[in-house]
Amino acid sequence: MAASVSDQYHYLSTDLLSKAWSIDLRYLVLSALVIFVVLPVCRFVHRDYHAFLALGPGGTPSTFAGYLRICYLRLFTLDDPLEPPPSTNTERPASGFLLRLPRRLHPRPSVAGIAPHRQTNQKPPAQLYQRLRIALYSLVGENPRLLRTGNSCFEKHSLALFLCLCPQCPDAECHAELLHAGPTHMNATCSNTGEICHLHPSDSSLHLTLHPLDAAMVISRGWGERHPLAGRPILGIGKRVVPEGFVMVYAPQDETQIGVVMDIIRAAGWWVGGVGLACKAEGQGVTTKDTVLMD
Asked: What is the pTM of this model?
């Protein structure tokens, strides 16, 4: 009888210790997961989300849902935004607009984000941003039948330059003689709106769409880089979010650089709308098809 009681006591104590050890082990594993996995992930998401918000307003809502959308889009970004867009030899026209471009003297700025996609340094003073805005409006004033301004189709809020399509501008005249030869007079940008470029007030950089050869020249001479999603098909969307030649042009650092940036914008207008744009202030050292004809 005594042996039986002793056996039962030994069994119960062993069972209780086994259960306690099992509970402690599960608690330790759970604690380790929280400390070494969950907390680092939460810290990373917190920093990454606030870095997304710090880029300012853009084409994606500044909300956590917008941030999650950007996290998904990161799966499809370019490996190297400094690699020029591929040329398929089917572009019309076959050659680009820019024949020569001076090298940008400043090092490339740091760039972050997807939408928004912005510079994080080398931001010029507000006066230079205003001069760039004035230059855009002046370009429209010099080409009132070809250009108009409005809110960007890509960004939804930034100042943008558009091809002035006749249905959108009833008082404008279509100048067929200014259109380059090809199957179409416009290479699609954002929903076929004819958006040529848009300006970012937070850093004074621009986004625009260029002929592949012009994009390659802008990149090689240090004036810009491709958008991370340029030409990339997105799974679930079934189409490219931005065109193959969608490029960020870095913010000008002085008055001379504004002239060069304006010539790059003219190249974008030529590619998007097939039109030659008059521009009184041309960049020093820039050679375009127009300047060759004038010479």
From this structure: 0.79
CA distance 259 to 261: 5
Of the candidates 157, 81, 68, the residue with the CA atom closest to the CA atom of residue 112: 81
Calculate the alpha carbon distances from 55 to 67, 72, 201 in Å: 12, 18, 11
Separation of alpha carbons 143 and 133, rounded Å: 16
End-to-end CA separation in angstroms for the chain: 119
Of 122, 263, 264, whose CA–CA distance to 204 is shortest? 122
Separation between Cα atoms, residue 116 and residue 203, nearest integer Å: 11
The Cα 146–Cα 272 span in angstroms is 12
168-205 burial, b at 16+ Cβ within 10 Å, e below that, comes to: ebeebeeeeebebeeeebbbebbeebbbbbbbbebbbb
- The torsion region of residue 122 among left (phi > 0), alpha (psi -120 to 50) and beta comes to left
Distance CA 281, CA 265 (A): 12
DSSP 139: H
Phi-psi region of 282 (alpha: psi -120 to 50; beta: other; left: phi over 0): beta
Q: Tens of pLDDT along 140-155?
A: 999 888 889 999 989 8
List pLDDT tens digits, range 202-228. 999 999 999 999 999 999 999 999 999
| φ/ψ of residue 79, rounded to 5 | -70, -35
- Whole-angstrom distance, CA of residue 216 vs CA of residue 284: 19
Residue matched to tokens 């954002």:
190
For the four alpha carbons of 241, 110, 201 and 283, in that order, the dihedral sign comes to: negative
Greater confidence (16 vs 205) lies with 205
